[in-house]
Write a structure and sequence with these properties.
This protein is an alpha+beta fold and about 450 residues long. The chain has twelve helices and 17 strands. It has helices at about 5-20, 25-35, 70-85, 125-160, 170-185, 215-220, 260-290, 305-320, 335-340, 345-360, 385-400, 435-450, and strands at about 40-50, 55, 90, 95-100, 105-115, 190-195, 200-205, 230, 235-245, 245-255, 325-330, 365-370, 375-380, 405, 415, 420-425, 455. The strands form four sheets. Strands 2-1-5-4-3 form a five-stranded antiparallel beta sheet, with helices on both faces. The chain has a five-stranded antiparallel beta sheet with strand order 7-6-10-9-8. It has a five-stranded mixed beta sheet with strand order 12-13-11-16-17, with helices on both faces. The model has no long low-confidence stretch (mean pLDDT about 85).
């Protein structure tokens, strides 16, 4: 073997070791390095899964190998490597060799060349080096993935535990919880259900759609003493959320391809325990806050207080024959802010927007946080034309505001901007006092559907 080829090969492997961040990159890197010796058509890596004891494609660990002649051949060679401990098996243009760590066979590599592979090829002179290096790279990457999973898991637990520091409304908490769990358990579909007290049935809270209606039947099996329920041959895990000794909801994990393994169940059960603790805490907060008037995050009136003030203000407007307007605003693409920068930054945005808007209002105006990223304002003694000018002023102020997020250590991002969509309505002596904000809410929906960052009059 000439020195340059050997140098280029070792350099390629060394560079790959430094730069490969994921499984696909690693496999493609091996293919490029091995192309120095023969024209590689395909490089495949297969590993034995330690939980299911099935051989799996290294780049698609969520799939089981299908029953076909090609995959049966792979399984046959893996079994032979386990028994015979041979260095490689060559079949015309295909080469198989084992992945070994500490004398234990973990999987195999399949190389397919566009021409017949001959043992006089210079590759076989450095084969022990190739085999050892590739095995080391694969096991190192796998170990680093495990460390990352563990880190993400504990971060997920912390994030779920911290939700109630600034949020307490269950309609807001549960979708956030769903996003957090889905971000960690990426190889499964994640659903969160809550039990409807009145109808005694389960309602999907996150995401927006459930792909398997059989889940609803399974949820009916939950009792106050239920633990994890496995369905569909172990591909679906139902983790009951038991609050105050009663079924409150459930986290469901579903994998179309493979059984949920024991390690994943352990992760999910710990997440379920933290989620239950968070929901219990939120439920207690709600009971306390029923007697409170202010939203803890923004300092605005809370929803309960808003409904009380709405009733008072519409009655007063009707009695005194004075104009009254309502403005409803919603932060545009707020979910994207949470997904991109995290919920701590999302809370910072909520506080900043609330503060910016507050500066534009009169002391007599009533500001409330209606829920999530939605705010509602009552403007007494204000007609529709005046309220529309106020709404435009609020929209422009938020759009101009630069929100500093340096303290959150987001790479290359020191500040961000957001916009709001706004709906405006005027009280018309309706019998139902709720009509005022419902009209504003409909106009807000129209503003968002029409492109966002705009004001629509009901």
């Amino acid at each position: 073997m000439d020195f340059q080829t050997l140098y280029d090969f070792i350099y390629s492997l060394t560079k790959l070791y430094d730069e490969a961040k994921d499984r696909n990159t690693l496999v493609e890197g091996f293919k490029q390095a091995l192309s120095l010796f023969f024209p590689i058509e395909e490089t495949k890596i297969y590993l034995m899964d330690e939980y299911s004891f099935l051989l799996k494609d290294f780049t698609k660990p969520w799939e089981n190998l299908s029953q076909n002649s090609e995959n049966e051949e792979i399984k046959k060679h893996f079994d032979n490597f386990l028994i015979q401990k041979s260095q490689f098996v060559k079949e015309k243009n295909i080469l198989y060799f084992p992945i070994v760590q500490k004398h234990k066979t973990l999987g195999l590599i399949k190389l397919k060349s566009r021409e017949e592979i001959k043992e006089k090829n210079e590759f076989f002179k450095v084969f022990p080096l190739v085999s050892a290096q590739i095995s080391m790279f694969i096991t190192t990457l796998k170990n680093s993935e495990q460390i990352k999973i563990s880190t993400n898991f504990h971060q997920t637990l912390r994030n779920i535990a911290q939700i109630t520091q600034t949020q307490y409304e269950l309609d807001y908490i549960l979708p956030i919880m769903g996003e957090m769990i889905d971000g960690f358990i990426q190889e499964h579909l994640i659903y969160i259900f809550i039990k409807n007290k009145n109808k005694k049935e389960y309602k999907l809270i996150w995401p927006n759609k459930c792909s398997d209606n059989k889940i609803y039947d399974y949820l009916e099996e939950i009792t106050p003493k239920s633990q994890t329920i496995l369905k569909q041959d172990g591909k679906m895990g139902i983790l009951p959320l038991i609050v105050d000794g009663k079924p409150y909801g459930a986290i469901v994990a579903y994998n179309h391809f493979d059984k949920i393994n024991q390690k994943e169940i352990e992760y999910l059960e710990e997440i379920k325990s933290q989620a239950t603790a968070t929901l219990t805490r939120a439920k207690s907060y709600i009971e306390v806050l029923e007697h409170a008037t202010l939203d803890a995050l923004t300092g605005y009136n809370n929803r309960h207080q808003f409904e009380k003030r709405l009733k008072e203000m519409t009655s007063s407007a009707k009695r005194q024959n004075q104009p009254l307007c309502c403005i409803m605003s919603d932060i545009d693409f707020f979910k994207k802010v949470n997904d991109t920068y995290g919920h701590a930054v999302g809370d910072c945005v909520l506080k900043s927007v609330a503060k910016t808007i507050k500066r534009e209002l009169r002391e007599s105006d009533i500001a409330s946080r209606y829920g999530g990223e939605e705010f509602v304002f009552l403007l007494p003694q204000t007609n529709l034309e005046e309220a529309t000018l106020v709404a435009q002023r609020l929209r422009a102020s938020v759009e101009k505001k630069k929100i500093n997020i340096e303290e959150y250590n987001i790479k290359d991002v020191k500040e961000i901007s957001v916009t709001v969509s706004i709906g405006v309505s005027e009280y018309k002596n309706e019998k139902d006092y709720e009509t005022l904000y419902k009209k504003a809410d409909s106009a807000l929906y129209e503003a968002k559907e029409g492109g966002r960052n705009r004001v629509i009059i009901a």
